Amino acid sequence: MKLSSEELRFFKENGFLIKRGVLDKVLMARARERFWDYTPDRFSRYRPSSWVGPIPPEEEEEKTAAEPNESRGFRLHYRTIGSESWMVRLLAKDPAIWNMAEQMLGAGQLVDPKGIRGIYSTLPSGDHSVPPTTCHTDAHPFHLGIVGYIDDVSPGGGGFAVWAGSHKRFYYTFTSQYCNEPTEEHAALREYYNGQQPVDCYGKAGDIVFWHHRLAHTGPPNTTWRIRRAVLYEFAKRDIEKTQVEPPQKNMWRDWSPEFGQV
Predict the structure, then answer these.
(1) What is this structure's pTM?
(2) Does residue 228 contact residue 125 with C-beta atoms inside 8 Å?
(3) Cα(15)–Cα(22) distance, integer angstroms
């Protein structure tokens, strides 16, 4: 699978790109089954009313270095599963996805993945009030993020939300290219985008969303009755240890592939 020039231009302008029906169906089914390994005892896969959040405080689980899984509020982050080889094949090393990532960042340039972030889930809000949707940018260094849906995500279902085009402004509100070193302008820009409407990247099982490292984004509330289940990974180039501390470049696409830079 190869991205068209139009798709590359769309990503460059908007900071994200949705591709439909990419993930392997067998591996998605396996991930959906394994999801139930890390759910509260009250959850029943056959009783959707049991899936409504929030998780009671006494049942919450904080992540630690030894136990990275986390359950809190309306979130379930099943991280330990992300190191299993079949999960890596599901997302980061899916041949089509790997080819598209190399097309954007350069063939033979990507860090070989040892794992992905795992299964990230957002529980239905039910009758609970929904807080305002606010944005953030990620703190850890990478180049290209990817979100993959292992189950259908309807509009308003907690799908990945992005502020289109914000990467072109947030990139210059840090003192380095990829580290978390925001300038004074960052907070003001974030406040501005919090007043703008994000794009709801809903979709079907198998759909993926590529997104730029400095793109404003969030995991919004889930107002449907289906659990939002997604797998996540971040691609980085092998030279990121060097380039991450360099200042923002006049050409913010300097580190991307020649093909990508020319579109």
Answers:
(1) 0.96
(2) no
(3) 19
Separation between Cα atoms, residue 230 and residue 157, nearest integer Å: 12
CB 190 within 8 A of CB 145: no
Mean per-residue pLDDT, 30-36: 98
Token duo for residue 25: 């169906």
d(CA 70, CA 133): 21
| C-beta of residue 170 within 8 angstroms of C-beta of residue 189 | yes
Instruction: Identify the band that residue 144 occupies on the pLDDT scale cut at 50, 70 and 90.
Output: very high
Residue from 136, 219, 212, 146 nearest 178 by CA: 212
How does residue 260 score in pLDDT terms, banded at 50, 70 and 90? confident
Q: How many domains does the chain have?
A: 1
d(C-alpha 159, C-alpha 15), whole Å: 16
Domain with 246 in it: what CATH number?
2.60.120.620
CB atoms within 10 A of CB 124: 22
Domain holding 117, by residue range, is 5-262
Q: Which of 164, 146, 156, 141 is nearest to 255 (CA)?
A: 141
Query: Two tokens at 229?
Result: 């289940």
